[in-house]
């Protein structure tokens, strides 16, 4: 089993006060780092929103296929809406154990927006991966889902803006060549309409399918470690800062934790909504009971350290973690490094019930027209299009 590494931790108050030392950021994101920073003492509503949205992940993943099919967007290469069984694992097998729901977070900048703002170069016709409007489950199907999703994403992006401000201070103190002045990264994160969020539901695995698959992240890199990374390649995110919640483990074999128990209630509310002009009778679904910890201690987030060692990093439940992406590495001229990582699900053989794993990742990314390579004048849209083309099959 890989060793557990202790990630650098700072308080939200220190970020607000601007008192995080440059040495701390270098330790968290620099060339010899794990590329991850944990923020503690986040707003108290975070715990409630995290528990509620990660419960919705189980509800969503257990909707009837006919309803999930309506949430798919193959034209956007499934980078919008729902997908299941659309990714291929390292051994060529289709990944059927990870459901994924993507939503654009342009609502952070303007509540009327449902996707990134087009440019002269990028339009819905030529870049639907970023310019397709969100596909939400209707309110009668998953009451309260969109509201909870957006509220948690806003909170995480608020914290990301403060982390970005600290990165700007680091860049100024380190005198990074060509780094724009005036709070560049903070502006990028706070004004971006391309930021995406990905809600993940790792279905309970079957003991006959062991070892449990390694789940894919957002963008690709290479790995040659067969012991820890035997189902798919280790990945790099291609944005700036990826906000992560701790994972929620749910034993779906228990009646009180089984999301399908609530489905008749949802279907009844949906039928009621079709025959009535009034609001659905169910405003929010109840949060599901959360296990104190994973029954499989090996389940979770793994990072490839700069020394080539694979380590496990655990995110405390009441904290938000931020990983570095390729865009940030380019913007900082390599002073901050993107982190290669993968996720391992809970092995059924170590679970007495049927344990699902739910989590949320928020990928803060520059606007399509923002430059990420300030020397070669490459925009994020151009950079992201290349990444998407490399990671998807026509």
Keywords:
alpha+beta, 16 strands, 27% helix, 394 residues, IPNS-like_sf, 18% strand, Clavaminate synthase-like protein, 5-stranded mixed β-sheet
Strand content: 15-25%
Unreliably modeled segments: 211-233
Reading the helices and strands in chain order gives: EEHHEHHEEHHHEEEEHEEEHEEEEH
Report mean pLDDT, rounded to a whole number: 84
Rg from C-alpha positions? 20 Å
User: How many angstroms does the end-to-end distance come to?
Assistant: 37 Å
**Major β-sheet profile:** 9 strands, mixed
Count the E strands. Answer: 16
Helix run count: 10
Helix vs. strand class: alpha+beta
**Helicity range:** 25-40%
- Overall geometry: globular
Structural commentary:
This is Clavaminate synthase-like protein. It comes from Parathielavia hyrcaniae. Residues 269-300 are annotated as: Disordered. This protein has 394 residues and is α+β, with helices and mostly antiparallel strands. Helices cover 27% and strands 18% of the residues. It is built from ten helices and 16 strands. The protein has helices spanning 12-17, 22-29, 45-61, 65-69, 128-131, 145-174, 184-191, 263-274, 326-331, 380-391; strands spanning 4-5, 8-11, 36-40, 81-84, 98-104, 196-202, 214-215, 241-244, 248-251, 300-304, 310-313, 320-324, 341-344, 355-364, 371-373, 378-379. The strands form three sheets. Strands 2, 3, 4, 5, 6, 8, 9, 12 and 14 form a nine-stranded mixed sheet that branches. Strands 1-11-10-13-7 form a five-stranded mixed sheet, with no helix packed on it. The longest helix has 30 residues, at 145-174. It is globular and about 55 Å long. Mean pLDDT is 84; it is low at 211-233.
